[in-house]
Design goal:
Layout: H1 10-13, H2 18-72, E1 74-77, E2 88-91, E3 93-101, E4 106-116, E5 124-134, E6 137-160, E7 164-174, H3 180-183, E8 193-199
Antiparallel strand pairs: 1-3, 2-6, 3-4, 4-5, 5-6, 6-7, 7-8
Length: about 210
């Protein structure tokens, strides 16, 4: 029995040419670059969203604290020149007596004020300053920031004859922080958050 041996042709043994390898590498690198860019944009978008949500929660807690202090405070300032003709005053600060003890003579004056920020914290900061007096004698002062990254801090204070504070409207515009690095190369911009709340001292609560 005669067996015929067939040699493989040159085409069946032929490998990839250098040009074909380069084309395959180019296509693979392009796909990997597009995938990494999509993942990077997705991660940065997630960071912007989470930062906005966390800033919203913190801002609402701060706003609730501010309105609570207004309800329990007394002897508010600044005062309008004439509460009859101009009962409303716009201010970037507000102060009031937050604690009074007639037995010991201790009195605490709380001041909420807007201060300039910097390149990292943003245009403005909201500061909380407490000054303690005993029998009208200065004792101590403590200060701390309540919020940073604010684009607007405004107190609209409406007075009654006295002058006694009738109502204050707190207007805050907050820029979510820690998103500057996420915006680089992704063209992302976190939306600002605006919170407006009104509160009255106890004697004017309905």
């Amino acid at each position: 029995m005669i067996r015929s041996t067939r040699k493989p042709s040159k085409s069946t043994c032929r490998g990839f040419s250098l040009i074909e390898v380069l084309i395959a590498l180019t296509i693979t690198s392009t796909l990997l670059t597009a995938t990494m860019a999509a993942l990077d944009a997705s991660f940065k978008g997630y960071k912007v969203t989470t930062e906005g949500a966390s800033t919203n929660v913190v801002a609402r807690i701060v706003m609730q604290r501010l309105t609570s202090m207004v309800r329990t405070g007394e002897n508010f300032g600044p005062y309008p020149v004439n509460p009859i003709t101009t009962p409303t005053i716009e201010s970037t600060w507000m102060e009031f007596v937050s604690f009074r003890d007639p037995v010991t003579g201790e009195r605490r004056v709380t001041r909420l004020e807007r201060r300039d920020g910097d390149a990292e914290t943003g245009p403005y900061e909201l500061w909380y300053v407490v000054t303690t007096f005993v029998n009208d004698t200065y004792q101590s002062e403590s200060a701390a920031p309540l919020m940073v990254g604010l684009n607007k801090v405004q107190f609209d204070m409406e007075y009654d004859v006295g002058p006694q504070l009738k109502r204050v409207t707190i207007d805050l515009i907050i820029q979510p922080d820690d998103v500057q690095d996420a915006a680089i190369g992704a063209n992302l911009e976190a939306p600002t958050i605006r919170l407006v709340a009104s509160a009255s001292p106890r004697q004017f609560d309905e």
